[in-house]
Write a structure and sequence with these properties.
Blueprint: H1 24-39, E1 58-65, E2 68-75, H2 80-87, E3 106-109, E4 112-115, E5 128-130, H3 144-151, H4 161-173, H5 180-186, H6 197-213
Parallel strand pairs: 1-5
Antiparallel strand pairs: 1-2, 3-4, 3-5
Helix pairs in contact: 3-6, 4-6
The chain binds FE2/S2 (inorganic) cluster (FES) (2 copies).
One FE2/S2 (inorganic) cluster binds at residues 95-98, 100-105, 115, 117.
Length: 214
């Protein structure tokens, strides 16, 4: 596994929302403009309560987070990562680079991995978000991928681990875990400064059959 370089098109940010030629500022401004232009318009019935004094850049959104319905008003410029961490107190997704380069903020949006630092909260309107807090089994049982990370010592400080696990689950579900080479390629957007890469690949290989059956 290797870090992405800014002009390496084969390792685009895991969100798939911003190409290598599009910087974060351009992406945020463009997406906010699109949202304000009507892309996230809500029915009156569906909109959370807002007041006449609500600034134009604040948007009401409704979404499912870890199976729970959530309604809130967000600043159109706010990332999904900041909304999860600061508004919903879901701090499992980590802010590593805040630029789509490290994968520490990886969550699932409608079942697809995304870099939540590059995803606007407004883009999650009427969609389903799953974070590391939402993958436990009945009775709080560890997800097979979490157990496999423990079994393979696939972490040291643990800072990258929530993002690694969310990406690892997507790696299996999307059919990229058939060989160690496939796993390394798919997971190349998730960096680990502790160098736990060997254990991470082993963990994904162990958990893959269970995740495929789930
Ligand atoms: S990729 Fe989002 S914090 Fe690094
Ligand atoms: S376990 Fe420390 S950064 Fe990955």
């Amino acid at each position: 596994m290797k870090p992405r370089s800014s002009n390496d098109t084969t390792h685009a940010p895991p969100c798939g929302l911003a190409g290598p030629e599009l910087n974060r500022r351009e992406m945020v401004l463009g997406s906010a403009a699109a949202a304000l232009a009507g892309g996230i318009a809500l029915d009156a019935d569906a909109a959370p309560a807002t007041s006449a004094s609500t600034p134009a850049y604040e948007l009401p959104i409704r979404l499912q987070v870890n199976g729970q319905p959530v309604a809130l008003v967000v600043d159109a410029r706010t990332s999904l990562l900041d909304t999860l961490r600061e508004d919903l107190a879901l701090t499992g997704a980590k802010k590593g680079c805040d630029h789509g380069q490290c994968g520490a903020c990886t969550v699932h949006l409608d079942g697809q991995r995304v870099a939540s630092c590059l995803t606007l909260a407004a883009q999650a309107d009427r969609r389903t978000v799953t974070t590391i807090e939402g993958i436990e089994g009945p009775g709080g049982a560890l997800h097979p991928m979490q157990q496999a990370f423990i079994d393979h010592d696939a972490l040291q400080c643990g800072y990258c681990t929530p993002g690694q696990i969310m990406a690892a689950i997507a790696c299996v579900r999307e059919g990229h875990a058939k060989t160690p080479e496939q796993i390394r390629e798919y997971m190349s957007g998730n960096l680990c400064r502790c160098g736990a890469y060997v254990g991470i690949v082993g963990a994904i290989q162990q958990a893959a059959p269970l995740v495929r059956r789930a």
